[in-house]
Design goal:
It is built from 15 helices and 10 strands. It has 366 residues and is α+β, with helices and mostly antiparallel strands.
Length: 366
Amino acid sequence: MTSFNHSSFSSQEITQLSKQIKSWAQELGFAEARVTGTDLTKHKKPYQEWLEKGYHGSMDYLANHGDMRFQPKLLHPGTQRIISLRMHYLPQSVETAKRLQTKEKAYIARYALGRDYHKLIRKRLTQLAKKIEQEVGPHGYRAFVDSAPVLERQIAEQSGMGWIGKNTLLLTPKAGSWFLLGEIFTNLPLPIDQPPAKPMKHCGSCTACLDLCPTGAFVEPWVLDASRCISYLTIEHDGPIPVELRSKMGNRIFGCDDCQLVCPWTKFAKYTDEKDFFPRHNLDNADLVTLFLWDEETFLKNTEGSPIRRTGYINWLRNIAIALGNAPTTPQITEALVKRSNHESELVQEHVRWALAQHKLASIGD
């Protein structure tokens, strides 16, 4: 296709461009790309009701930015279409349920085992946008990966990529939910991919994700109280973890995958060959004690370029202290807890005391 003026796209040219974009997306490692419009206003009322009930916890940024979430043109002026893309992130070699059952090992959400997905996917999105630019000239675009007021799952659902399940995640019969989303807001008038005439809502009567959530974070189908979610507690939340939730967290020290693991659609998951998603520093098989004894320098070194950095070193120790409290009693575990019992952080000390109490021990100095 030769370069042409945006204002004079023929129907055939724009349709061909859309097909080419999807082909390029697959070449860049995306599993799927679909195009949708910019009208998201129907999501405003339920979103605001969710906020009013305080289900966002301390994530105040979710209440900021006014109507940008519902009117993409406010976020990127001139936006006519949104290209929604997804990328698989689960390596075949990574164990999931087995690791949860090995209580002296750390469980880290599968997306966080390798390189920070923000960097990887944003780079690919930019490469895709540049390919489009090489084909048609400047088209006015902006790429997003979970880092701006963008309703990613709703956009993907609207594009016909899948449906939002009762666990509030996007599900697709092609791959379950083991994938990450990204978007390109573009000023190009691409043809919109129409979702199925009958909306995809294939959860049926299944409530596995609601019934088996460790902390009971789902208020009802499609409604998550994030303040009770282990992902929120271990990543976003600063300060003490509510005592009544600590024993429910098991060995999950960064994020939680349970509502995906129990979902029947997970059996259709596709694995990734992206090396950047492969585990680093043995994080998919690490002992809790080993991670707990990292000093801050080691933590920063081993989490460089990783999403785990987001939780910070003190919260990292807090999370692992809880996991050690939930682990079987062994000399190695109790010794590690005692060693941290006089940590300079009162937050760490508090959670170490709780953990030692689970092993029927008192910390030094009590």
